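Re: weekly structure request thread

Next one in the queue (457 aa):
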Amino acid sequence: MDLVIKRGTVATASGGAVLDVGIQDGQIVQMGGAMSAAHEIDAEGMFVLPGGVDPHVHLTPPRTGPGLESWADNFEIGTRAALAGGVTTVGNMSFPRKGEKMSQGLERDVEDSNSTSLTDFFHHPVLLDPDPDSLKEIPELAASGHPSIKIFLSFKRFDRNVDDFLRAMRAASQAGSVVLLHCEDAALMGCCGELVREAGLSSHRHYPETRPVVAERIATERAVGFCEISGAATYIVHLSSQAALEVCRSGRARGLPLYVETRPIYLHLDRSRFDEPDGAKYAGAPPLREHYDRDALWAGIVDGSVSTVATDHAPWTLEQKLDPTLGPAELRQGMAELETSLPMLWSLGVATKKISLNRFVEVTSTNPAKLFGMYPQKGCIAPGSDADLLVLDPNEKRIIDGSQMHSAAGYSPYDGWEVVGWPKFTLSRGEVVAEGSSVDASPGRGKLVHRQPFERP
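Done, posted below.
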């Protein structure tokens, strides 16, 4: 064998035990029993977990051209941060440029990530224009290993073309593609933004008023209806509120193929952060909510209503986030979380006994791997699976300092927080690619994951 991880507590979505794990040619080949290898990792007192699968990141630009901005991190920077945080596979949102087909934008982004990514990766083609040619692409993309599309209810074009977007969901259902939906109502947000401007409210403190809970709830209600009529596996991204979660619970209780993602910021922060002088740095879409929304999302992880925790990693620099020329409705949304997502969820979830170890594995690795057609290649620890592993030291304490992390954002929304539990080793296809916060991997080592059509877990 190439490598044996010895004496660690191996944890999966369904159980855990102290076992040795044998690795050969990038795959797990043996669990337990006698084995020897050229190299060993002593994991005594540590947990051996499936590497994180983050199905929602932004590492390629949504638009390009003179004067147009993109996020602080590209594939090389973002996936370096991912490995330092124990994430071994990322799912990127692939935006076509104006006049492009989904497949053209996807081809460009695959070429970029093939040459720059440090982690394995996949892409969700973003559907902006649901014309007949785009609808024909959906089964073609699924057949070529890309069985998912992303739709934004938050864009005005959604309401202008809602019939065609619903046809796209029907096409996705027939093709075995998952439909990712950003659920905020564009008309309500537009009206709320106008009300804030007309009232002369210019402080970032009023950002949540421009994207209220009702906009998320109404859009989520529509999404559940679209799921019911189309039959498409529907994945609600970055759900932030108790009200929207209850809508999804109702749909799931009726047996709909409906799945909920939330983000770390909604589990760890609340709306009071906008009262801080630099509160604009916490702007995300949707905004931070109330403490009871945060509590409801934790409860959703426990009871299974929340299927995944993903970062929506889309960072800006602090200077960009705190731009004084931006009004409340114009704040730059997104932040760096790939390096902190798993340690934060471990420290504030598992270490405090708020969630179980097995649920941690489910929402950070196994469930996203299953939903997006990568299981059991990814998301589990079993013979034949890729040796994507996180060896986590539950006793290591760290003070988060975004200026010392790998993202080009230069800050973290959790700066100054102490966490207990941190990645000791990260393995990608059997290679030790990170030790502590030190990453030893070259751009282009990551591989595109060929995904299978959706099968209901």
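The chain has a mean pLDDT of 97. The CA atoms of residues 63 and 98 lie 8 Å apart.
Next request, please.
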